[in-house]
Design a protein that fits this description.
The protein is mainly alpha-helical. It contains 15 helices and no strands.
């Protein structure tokens, strides 16, 4: 059987099903779906945080801690098998990558602190909307820093998606109460997350998705653990259910969700990826309705539809990157 697989007939058979270049094209076609599924996985975050026995900061630490085995396994599996180093070894990043990796880890750690504090003070859809409303920040930042420009149709898609996101969160917008603080923390988290997305997109041209995710966790974990302990909060859940929620938070929200998003950055313009992340508030509203007894109104359903339409329009109108400074 092995001889058959390595024969020229095997090559001819593979060519019939996978013409030249089709694997790369297929990966590119699956990239939008990967980002959307990643956003859906990340949208489970408010459910786990609300049900957690721990504080928001401690939950953020657990999210990164339990994602570490996922990214370590991914990194080990994706390493070239011909390397002289042991497969389990983690190669230190080169000196030129260290500053940006440190910045990405710091931005993500502070982003999680802001996001989880927002989740405790406002509706799940709101927190996910504001943290994922960074298409504005990403597009502006990409234009200012990297010379990326977008088409008019792409901007139209972004506008539709953002309006839809506002409609999803509209019912729980409550100026003058604690919601305002929660929403403000969500906006801060969105700005920080936009910085992380921009940094990760630059690293993705030279490092693998597994490396970026793994080093982000390695940098963020000690920061979040120290902040948790310094604030006098416990890192130890009291029940098996509490442990299960924290493990699920790390594996699903960070390991699967963020892993798919960073992988998508390798095959999509950063500006489109940021728009696709607006799937998160839609999914968060549904999860909150299912598990947290938050209401789901007809206006929110209209907003969800608008988000999906906006994402589709933005996907069809692919942004144009500057030749001088490609994104």
């Amino acid at each position: 059987m092995r001889d058959i697989l390595h024969s020229k007939h095997a090559g001819q058979l593979m060519a019939c099903f996978f013409p030249a270049g089709s694997i790369l094209i297929d990966l590119t076609r699956f990239a939008p779906l990967a980002v959307v599924l990643g956003a859906v996985a990340v949208a489970t975050n408010p459910v786990f945080v609300r049900l957690s026995e721990l504080t928001s900061v401690a939950s953020a630490a657990h999210r990164m801690i339990w994602a570490l085995p996922v990214f370590a396994l991914w990194f080990w599996w994706s390493r070239p098998k011909t390397t002289a180093q042991p497969p389990s070894a983690v190669k230190p990043p080169s000196a030129k990558h260290v500053p940006l990796l440190l910045l990405c880890g710091l931005l993500f750690a502070v982003d999680l602190v802001s996001l989880h504090a927002s989740i405790e003070r406002t509706a799940a859809a709101n927190s996910m909307l504001f943290v994922n409303a960074q298409p504005i920040y990403v597009v502006i930042g990409s234009w200012l820093l990297f010379g990326t420009r977008v088409t008019r149709h792409f901007g139209f898609g972004v506008a539709i998606a953002l309006i839809g996101g506002v409609l999803v969160a509209w019912q729980s917008l409550d100026i003058g109460t604690e919601h305002l603080i929660g929403d403000g923390l969500g906006v801060l988290a969105g700005i920080l997350y936009a910085g992380y997305i921009l940094g990760a997109s630059r690293l993705r041209g030279q490092l693998s998705s597994a490396e970026i995710n793994l080093w982000t966790c390695l940098i963020a974990v000690p920061i979040l653990v120290l902040v948790t302990l310094a604030s006098g909060n416990s890192l130890i859940p009291e029940t098996p259910r509490g442990w299960g929620l924290m493990i699920a938070l790390g594996v699903i929200s960070q390991g699967i969700g963020q892993g798919l998003i960073v992988w998508g950055l390798a095959h999509l313009p950063t500006s489109f990826s940021s728009v696709a992340l607006l799937t998160a508030p839609v999914a968060a509203a549904v999860f909150a309705w299912l598990f947290l007894d938050e209401s789901l109104s007809s206006i929110q359903i209209v907003g969800m539809s608008a988000v999906l339409v906006g994402i589709y329009v933005a996907w069809r109108a692919a942004p144009i990157a500057s030749k001088k400074k490609p994104l």
